[in-house]
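User: For documentation purposes, I need each entry recorded in a consistent format: the amino acid sequence on its own, followed directly by the corresponding structure tokens. There are two entries in this batch. Please keep commentary to a minimum and don't merge the entries.

Assistant: Recorded as requested. Entry 1:
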Amino acid sequence: MREWQKNLLICYYFFKYRYFSNFKNKNSLIHWQKRKFKKHLRWIVKNSPYYRDLLNGNSDVSLTDIPVINKSELMKNFDRINTVGLKKKNVFSKIKKAEQTRNFKELTVDDIAFGASSGTSGRPVIFLASSSERARYIGTIMGKAKQNHLFWKNRLALVLRSNNPIYDTKSKKRHQFKYFDPTTSLDKIVEDLNSYNPTVLFAPPSMLLQLAKEAKQGELKINPREITSVAEVLTLEDKKNIEDSFNIKLHEYYQTAEGHIGMTHLDHEIYLNEDLIIIEKDYIDKKSERFVPIITDLYRKSLPLIRYRLDDILVEDVDNLDNVFTRLKQIDGRCDDVIYLKSKESDSLVPLYPDFFRRNIIFCNDNINDYLLEETTSGVFELTLEAENIQSFKEIKTDVLASLEKLSQKFEVILPEVRLNFEKIPINFDKKKRRIISKRRQQY
């Protein structure tokens, strides 16, 4: 696709989602989704060998007639699901080489750019994007991000785990994209950011926290008009810390390898992009409105995603049911981050979600800066705490153990042995930051 064609597509999708993608109510959205899905499925059945065989060439089926798939199934059948003839073995080989050399320019085959997720919960998942899909992605994001404008000159800084040709789709005159490798030294990143002076900054919360410290110390001198958190779970505490340091309201993109799932609107609340994807809610705890999303991308063609179950746990804001799009209270974490403890009353296991532990650890003592809770394969809690004041360790230990005991009493579960460590928690920008990890569940 030529440059002028890409730019034309960017403009088209920008104006579409900025001014013309308005639905009167939820029913009008659902009606549009059904029509769009029928049209999309006809194309998929013709071009994806997997779905053609699965549906016996019949595209006249309802969404719920199609089986739900997960990451494992997607990767197992990758060669037949994708519509561009790519082979998983060849793609993974190129991705592995790019990760080792940190040279991501070769992650293309003809018109198709590709990459992989970080693989924090097992085998990475591959994503694909044609040049038209990349143009749609950029135009859509800019159109839906109403705090920015297509015709403003932007210098966008991407401090992400890996680069990808998808970020090269832009208008070179007005929108410059620059990738900053987080595996280089923090001093080098700060120096390069000061030189580039971005107007828009994209980075995961773990990196933004480090940059916030540099800004407080006067080392980082940038003044972007927009900062967006991506790739990792953003806690309320981290959000406040980053916003205070940069004196700016933080935006959040709920972006996965599988697609652009949600983003903050002008009210700084996260809404699901249900004008791009159909989201079925698999409730794992209806009482607390926690659900796992099953997504159907209504536009993606190179690697179709139909009834694809994500690993994330989302919390719906039920006080906003009148809105067209689903609003989230928070992104709670991954399914792998849920810890199951034995009930005091029976042999059943009770799920405790990441946010429960976060609140009981971070709020029990003001001297706790950071934490890492790992449930070992034997069921022991290894809790590493990073504290402000070395003199307060004894007090912190007392407060944390009491808080976890209180949590276990509330849910009537047996609290396992807790081993406390006080040390600086290492930062690995090559992987997503996770504060709650259940190694025991990974055995199942």
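Entry 2:
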Amino acid sequence: MAEEQWCTGGELKDICKCHEDTTHFKFVSTDYIVPIPRCMTKFTKAISLDLQWNDIREIRNLDTLVNLEKLNLNYNNIKKINGLENLKNLNHLDLRGNDIKRIEGLENLDKLNFLAIDVDNRYSPLDVEGKFDHMKGLEELHLHTKAGGVLRSPVSFPRLEKLKRLNLKTYAMKIEGLENFPNLEELKIEGQYTDKMEGFRVINKIKKTRYAYHSKHAFDKEN
């Protein structure tokens, strides 16, 4: 196994100064910074890349990072998920705190075990059908719609046998398919208008349940 080499900093443009054999990157800033620089393509040995809290508008220049396993792009200004097609070894993807309009561009990411996305869909319902079916190893899913955004109802999830933690913030009226998570241990639902949840009572391994707003009524109806 190759030796870990870290490179950290605050200015994203300084990432070009890192050694080509660097495996772990962390460049975090609260300033308005430049896009992901072209020099990023030379870091083919990269395993983890943390670029949270930058003013990144577009996912680019990551195509050659085929060994990348962990990618944090949370709290940027990304509106579209793209440029991840070649990152087939990715198992951790965090896109929270962006302005993403729809779930797309994840079709080749079969190895994900952690996925977190905030979606800004205030003007149209978000359809999640078929978006996660290929992620058979997914263990933790955070899916939030921003204030005023809704999930197309009913929300129906595929069978994800390894899923242990689900954090869902939605304004959908009905959520079904919870029975497709037989190993779920933690469930957090925030949904002001969620009125019915189907499949909750068949989850035997659940250890922690949290709800907010009116979701309590949906739990009560099944228990």
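Summary note for entry 2:
The longest strand covers residues 92-100.
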